[in-house]
Please model this.
Amino acid sequence: MTRRWTEQEVAKLRHAMSDDAAPPAKVRKAYRSQWEAEYAGVLEMRKRAGEILSYGYEQITLVLPGQLRYTPDFLSVLPDGTFEMHEVKAWLREVARDRLRSAVATFPTVHWYLIGESRVPIRLRTPDDVPSARKVVA
Model:
């Protein structure tokens, strides 16, 4: 079953990713996109609230079957030691989609999230949960 975000959580997330809450230009340069920089702000808020212990940007590279490599945008660690992987994508090209599906299948104990155009995290529990459309709108 997919985790449902409360209206309050969605509102907090949208505010954190709005232009009003965008990190300064110096911070944005550390990320590949503006969305990634904004999402780092969301993870920082979660860390300060005690929801996560730590997070990092492109910290690890996973080796998938067939010696493919995949580097998730963000890795976060929950207080219970569970790992979360967050992928921020407006467009999901075929190669990226296939690698994300393979990663979800290979590491099922990790909590996987895809952040698309709506900027609301989608929990990916199985490879079939990865959208097949190019534009990530959910």
